Amino acid sequence: MFDCQDVLNRTYQRVLAMENKGAVASYIPELAKVDPANFGVCITTKTGEQFHCGNSITPFSIQSIAKVLSLSLAISHQGEKMWERMDFEPSGSSFNSLVQLETENGIPRNPLINAGAIVVCDILCDLFENPKEELLNYVRKISGIKSISYNLEVAKSERLTGYRNYALLNFIKSFGNIKNDCDTVIDVYFHLCSLEMNCVELSKTFGFLANRGKQIITNTQVVKPSQAKRINAIMQTCGFYDEAGEFAFRVGLPGKSGVGGGMVAVLPDAYTIATWSPKLNKHGNSYRGMKFLEYFTDETQDTVF
Amino acid sequence: MFDCQDVLNRTYQRVLAMENKGAVASYIPELAKVDPANFGVCITTKTGEQFHCGNSITPFSIQSIAKVLSLSLAISHQGEKMWERMDFEPSGSSFNSLVQLETENGIPRNPLINAGAIVVCDILCDLFENPKEELLNYVRKISGIKSISYNLEVAKSERLTGYRNYALLNFIKSFGNIKNDCDTVIDVYFHLCSLEMNCVELSKTFGFLANRGKQIITNTQVVKPSQAKRINAIMQTCGFYDEAGEFAFRVGLPGKSGVGGGMVAVLPDAYTIATWSPKLNKHGNSYRGMKFLEYFTDETQDTVF
Amino acid sequence: MFDCQDVLNRTYQRVLAMENKGAVASYIPELAKVDPANFGVCITTKTGEQFHCGNSITPFSIQSIAKVLSLSLAISHQGEKMWERMDFEPSGSSFNSLVQLETENGIPRNPLINAGAIVVCDILCDLFENPKEELLNYVRKISGIKSISYNLEVAKSERLTGYRNYALLNFIKSFGNIKNDCDTVIDVYFHLCSLEMNCVELSKTFGFLANRGKQIITNTQVVKPSQAKRINAIMQTCGFYDEAGEFAFRVGLPGKSGVGGGMVAVLPDAYTIATWSPKLNKHGNSYRGMKFLEYFTDETQDTVF
Amino acid sequence: MFDCQDVLNRTYQRVLAMENKGAVASYIPELAKVDPANFGVCITTKTGEQFHCGNSITPFSIQSIAKVLSLSLAISHQGEKMWERMDFEPSGSSFNSLVQLETENGIPRNPLINAGAIVVCDILCDLFENPKEELLNYVRKISGIKSISYNLEVAKSERLTGYRNYALLNFIKSFGNIKNDCDTVIDVYFHLCSLEMNCVELSKTFGFLANRGKQIITNTQVVKPSQAKRINAIMQTCGFYDEAGEFAFRVGLPGKSGVGGGMVAVLPDAYTIATWSPKLNKHGNSYRGMKFLEYFTDETQDTVF
């Protein structure tokens, strides 16, 4: 195998030397005030080795990346049953999301777009009396990191400005595909989006997806191997909104991004890689994160394709 | 490695024993009159071994599967330049295709939907004086099979009923994204769709995508390794219209289907697998082909995820 | 002039003799439990004469017909300024309403679709400290009928099931086109929809639109003549959702319908005509109401065209 | 009655004194080369009096205005039967036209949008052996003007650049709603759009719509009174693409515009008014024509509302 730390360092320096393009997400103050110069990466192998570089231990808001974790929790309890309430197809342009809900009677296209993640939160409300606590405990358990927490300021800010998500939720409820009270569901959703981790923690948390569903180090089964395969498949086809194809094309790994500037990618049976840099390209994905993952996989020739 | 012929046989028998659901495509007589009982499979490894079963040497109309071959020819000549004229993102539901062309000014979402494949045909008309001949020669060359041909009856039938494709073509031309005469371009497109192969030939033809861009057996480089990776990535995210996610989810391999009932899937660095059974599910993909590939990969645990 | 009472009676009997097709709106219990056999009509001339027939003094929920009254109140205070926040173009199929809001940045297409009526309610919240009271007083004033009231049971039921309208409201707010608190605005909207009148009251209330903006009998100016003309124009092009063209085509008068089975139509400078019959056709307009107005205007040859 | 020539002159001068905003249609050379300073108006009363001003006898391309004439010819032969193949509802934004055809299975929303006018041309191909000749004879007959003709250069230019219309035609044919050969139908359509008249001729030609379906002067019945009413209703709700509401709102008369800068409006039982000025506003309607009709009807208080 290649010298992982060496390739990591060189790729990091290469991207660092480039102009830091894009814009930091600004729809809530907590995201807007983050220093755009931050740039961290961490690789965690399925045997538990970690290689990192840059601002890799600075916590950030993982935002939509957390949708993979709520999906994982729901799928581990409900299995195939959950697909009665959503699909696992790519969504095309974000523009189409509302049209799609209309033509498909409130069935979201996949669990990684907002509409689908909201239905996943509704499923968590069905399953648990205290869904927020259960979700947090789950994330702490699969990561083995007790200190992971919601950022309550972020959750509150999301709530105050999240009219579009609240519109989605009510629209889906009008089709009967939300079972719980809207305010309860949205509260879970906004807490989910407020989860904070650093790159080292994020890549470790996602380790089970590179390890056939088993937590790394302890090898505890978190989801079934077939479920891990399916989560990876969903990330591959649906993980990057309007840039899912771009990511498959340039990086060639399943992954997920968040508007906080985080990204995570998985090479099954090998490693996970987390990056963080707050400036986003026009599709809402981290500019440096995309570059890093593209250059890194070009050099290592690691790809699922 | 598992005993490939054995797993192939057992999976074949398992699917054969199930009810043969779905409906044969009937929009042209040449497809409608095919015997729905046909069912063939063939695996070709990157070292050239072949394992097959059932009606694996009966030729059929590969239809949209051929779009991967025209893409391959175009990409080998134009490289990244071709992405100025189309994108490589999944398209969402087929319903959205015209809306998407409208909102994105005539830029098709990817080269495997009809709109994109039509623009690829226009690129071939730019590149070659006799695009139909060049395309056929290319397919014969990369497959090493001289007898592969267009079915002129099929091409003619497509032409007589292909109003929707002709509408797409004219619509794209209205945005300036078709450079050649509409009748010339559509003629290439309908010939492309009329290519005929059997399962043994189809899996061999696609061998270069499991072999980092090199033709199997001769190891002649057909497309660059990075281009093979990208074609696989595009098949993964865009190869099955409304069922791209389903295929990634259940099969976990890049692939492409056609309305003639053919399917092809690729396990990079290992093998390609072609199936043929004419009855289609509601998404237009072969009912038995999907089942076969799902059960086969379940048993072998072969998946890119 | 024709003998109004005679034509009214004969047309009423003609429609009464036909099969009473369609279905009563059932999304809230208060509408579902109305006797579908109800059928009333009333004509009020601009000089104050009234001709009625059938269940013309039974009160019913005027529902969306009330949107003309909130529009009238808003336009009388804001004049042309209100068109900065909405348009006055027909909306095409209801299917497109969310898509349209998306492509036109939260600007509703006209004040008579739900999205537009919600923005009108937001304008009323801007204008008045107690918008519900002001609105009710306004309706009582222009009608000269003190007993007109909201049905609080209906308003409450609308609130409990109105997820789609709440989705619309939040969606518009996400574009910045709602200034007040969502709960305050929706409360006004659901009260607006709960207004109750009978046919005699309804045709009298709308008298100002047949009288160049002046209340009938008292001749008090309610809106400017040019505003009355514009409200009529908006009713003509936008008053019947998917059936605006049908109504113009078959009836030829500006008008508005509600899911409670009420309809009102205006012949400028002559009269208003209100009908009520709870069974709705597939476009959501009263089956008998449409028939009555078509046959009535056929016989009288009254049409703006 | 007001002094028609006087109001006409004063309104003409008022608009002439304003800045001549907008842009001349340039998609074909024949339209692009017209002098943008042209501005003519003509009123023809139902008794045959004519009042005109400015460039009122300079011929221009009436373009989409002609769709009212093909509709009239079709309706006079087919009556209600033609509504099996198209609707008469407003279309919302032009953006929605393709979506609408898709969701409504190739049934155009009304006969005045391109899709609908194309189906009308297909109906003319059903009705007549020589549809172009029949159509021209019909226009000459109802206008009483033998010299009206197609502009063959315009028809040819339309043909060479009309990819979008050809796309629409093929798309509708894919749903089975075009019965004749595509090339035959489009030829009729492009000739229809190439009709030339001046303002005096145009207002006279439309006279039957202000005269309950009877040609003015001769009083020959051209269409039934109920059909005239319906054509007016369709013009009112569908005559101005994205500005149908605007026109109803500001002018208050049924009418139709063309990209050549012509407009025609009808006050039933009174007069028709034709205007021509080539510069178009952003909705594709004549800038000066809209202003003239708005100011004219403001002053005369002529409105159907």
TrEMBL record, chains A, B, C, D:
- Which keywords describe this protein according to UniProt? Acetylation, Hydrolase
Which Gene Ontology BP annotations are present? glutamate biosynthetic process; L-glutamine catabolic process
- Does Hydrolase count among this protein's keywords? yes
* Residues noted as binding substrate in the record, renumbered to the chain: 64, 114, 158, 165, 189, 241, 259
Q: Which reaction does this chain catalyze?
A: L-glutamine + H2O = L-glutamate + NH4(+)
The EC number(s) this enzyme carries: 3.5.1.2
Q: Name one GO molecular function term.
A: glutaminase activity
Family according to the record: Belongs to the glutaminase family.
Q: How does it assemble?
A: Homotetramer.
This chain belongs to the protein called Glutaminase
